[in-house]
Amino acid sequence: MSASRDKKQLLEQLNETERQIADRISDNMNTFGVSSTVGRLLGIIYMNREPMTLDDLAEATGMSKTRMSQVMRQMISLNIAEKEHVKGSRKEHYNVENDYVQTFVSLFTTNWREVISKNRQFANKLQREIDEVAAASDGSVEVDQKIAELRKELDEWVAYYNWISRLVEFFESGDIFSAVPIERSDKGEDT
Predict the structure, then answer these.
(1) Are 171 and 109 in contact (CB under 8 A)?
(2) Higher pLDDT, 20 or 2
(3) CA angle, corner 147, sides to 144 and 152, nearest 5?
(4) Which residues pair with 83 in a beta bridge?
(5) Which residue would you say has higher pLDDT here, 18 or 167?
(6) Using one digit for the tens of pLDDT, what is the confidence trace for 34-86?
């Protein structure tokens, strides 16, 4: 009897460790501007080690199935989750990337692509506004000087987002791993 109790206590302790890992994954999502709910589901599915249904997720979180559906759509758009067919089940199952590095790359590149796009559009809008002011200017030295300053600022702005775009491409192409190799641990692996 005491051996099974010890086993039960050990399993409970290991389950608590898994919960702590899932919680930390959730906390880390804030770094990417992702909601804690997205992080929580990522951690839950990751630690489950197999695809989960919306019902499973609702039960695990205590949230509604509708909310789980919304969050899973968000995770799919961030490229950190996908629908997965499970033989013998008619329900939709969801799974997440099992590689922390790939999850980072997906979040990093998806978020920055959106920022780059928005800021390039914004820069174009501001450039048009500056061009309109320049066309309407009567040649005032003060106005022309301000136009030149703002054009220089916008050039630097565009150069910055072009650099970020190249950085995103560096991650997406996998070239980042030549510059910063992943050091994998063999600990805990079965041999």
Answers:
(1) yes
(2) 20
(3) 130
(4) 94
(5) 167
(6) 888 998 899 999 988 899 999 999 999 999 999 999 999 999 999 999 999 99
CA 151 to chain centre: 33
Q: Which amino acid is at 32?
A: F
* Structural domain range at position 88: 7-98
Q: Which residues of 142-173 are buried (b: 16+ CB within 10 A; e: fewer)?
A: eeeeebeebeeebeebeeebeeeeeebeebee
Spatial separation of the C-alpha atoms in residues 65 and 118, rounded to whole Å: 32
Q: What is the pLDDT of residues 102-149, one digit of tens each?
A: 988 998 899 899 999 999 999 999 999 999 999 999 889 999 999 999
Give the CATH number of the domain where residue 87 resides: 1.10.10.10
Beta bridge partners of 96: 81
Residues facing 6 on adjacent strands: none
pLDDT at 92: 94
Question: How many distinct structural domains can be found in the chain?
Answer: 2
64 and 50 in a single domain? The answer is yes
Among 64, 101, 60, 66, residue whose Cα is nearest residue 52 = 60
Q: Residue 100's pLDDT is what? A: 87
85 and 122 belong to one structural domain:
no
Of 48, 83, 98, the residue that ends a domain is 98
CA distance 96 to 12: 24
Q: Annotate 94-154 with DSSP letters as a single string.
A: EEE-S-HHHHHHHHHHHHHHHHHHHHHHHHHHHHHHHHHHHHH----HHHHHHHHHHHHHH
